[in-house]
Amino acid sequence: MRPEAASFPVFFGLWTPQLLPKNIRDTQQTSRMLHMKVKWCLGFVLVIYLALIHRSQGESQVICPSQPIVATVGNDIIFLCRLEPPISALEMTVEWARPDLNPRFVLVWRDGVELESKKHLSFKGRTSVFIDELEHGNISLKLSKVKLSDQGTYRCFIPQLNKDSTIKLDVGAVSSPVVNMTRNSSVVVLQCESKGWYPQPEVFWLDGEGNLLSAEPTETVRGPDDLYTVSSRVTVEKRHNNNFTCKVQQAKINQIRETHIIVPGDFFITHTNSVGRITISLAVCFMCVLAVVFFVWKWRQNET
């Protein structure tokens, strides 16, 4: 026999879920419960996400320059760092360190005082924080009397926030060049020497109009203190403008030192003039000798 088709109670062309078979009603209830669970899970995830966003926005970050800073030997330098948004660091722990050192600490500020006992010996008496600015979130470090050995990467760490940042310090040494001049026939030789540079610099010669002059190869010597001495020579001839410049520069630390020199016009003596002057001098001497001989001869004639 042919199975009878399932029939659903119909009232005026409408049907109600209560009149559905039990297995269909159970499926619909399961679907609704699953849908509610998914919505609840999504809502929970959204709440957690918003809470994390709010927390990250509310927590201060350690903000320091991303580019290396440059200092010259003997000068002071400030590692600019701050808490953003600003909060007081006066009662926090502020650690400045160089990971390559042992002990690594350059400065430790804790509970309102500096812990000198934790500081590396080479930084004793040379590092400090701006105490009056700590309450405003200024956690900058001042390093005095910079040395070549201070070059490296420094880390600022706030344990309470578990936040940190690093700054790279490049150190350079500079000095002004000294220029001497010597005369060689019809030309003048200028020598420029500059001691105490780091890193190794370059030397250039310029004329009065700023044009580069062709010079001999630069001589470079590195001393036991790791500082460089550079020396350069250039031969110049007499010209309209006898103004010359020795320029020593180091691009990495953006340092330039210059010394200007003016060569007097009469310092240039041509070879022809030199021969003429020697000839004249010899002639004068010869005339003087003749005069003396004549005077002696005349005196003896008078005696006799």
- Based on DSSP secondary structure assignment, what is the total number of beta strands? 18
Given the helix and strand composition, which structural class is it?
Answer: alpha+beta
Q: Can you give the helix content as a percent range?
A: 10-25%
**First and last CA, distance:** 188 Å
Question: Number of DSSP helices?
Answer: 3
Strand order of the largest sheet: 2-11-10-5-6-7
Shape field: elongated
Predict the CATH topology of the domain at 61-172.
Answer: Immunoglobulin-like
Throw out a few tags for this protein:
304 residues, alpha+beta, Immunoglobulin-like, four-stranded antiparallel sheet, 3 helices, 33% strand, elongated, transmembrane helix
Blueprint of the fold:
Blueprint: H1 22-58, E1 61-63, E2 69-72, E3 77-79, E4 82-84, E5 93-97, E6 105-110, E7 113-114, E8 127-129, H2 131-134, E9 141-143, E10 152-158, E11 163-172, E12 178-184, E13 187-197, E14 202-206, E15 219-222, E16 228-236, E17 243-250, E18 255-262, H3 271-303
Parallel strand pairs: 2-11
Antiparallel strand pairs: 1-4, 3-9, 5-6, 5-10, 6-7, 8-9, 10-11, 12-13, 13-16, 14-17, 15-16, 17-18
Description of the molecule:
This protein is an alpha+beta fold and 304 residues long. Among the domains are: 61-172, Immunoglobulins (Immunoglobulin-like, Sandwich), CATH 2.60.40; 178-267, Immunoglobulins (Immunoglobulin-like, Sandwich), CATH 2.60.40. It has helices spanning 22-58, 131-134, 271-303; strands spanning 61-63, 69-72, 77-79, 82-84, 93-97, 105-110, 113-114, 127-129, 141-143, 152-158, 163-172, 178-184, 187-197, 202-206, 219-222, 228-236, 243-250, 255-262. Strand 10 and strand 11 (163-172) form a beta hairpin. The model is unreliable at 1-15 and 53-57 (pLDDT under 50).
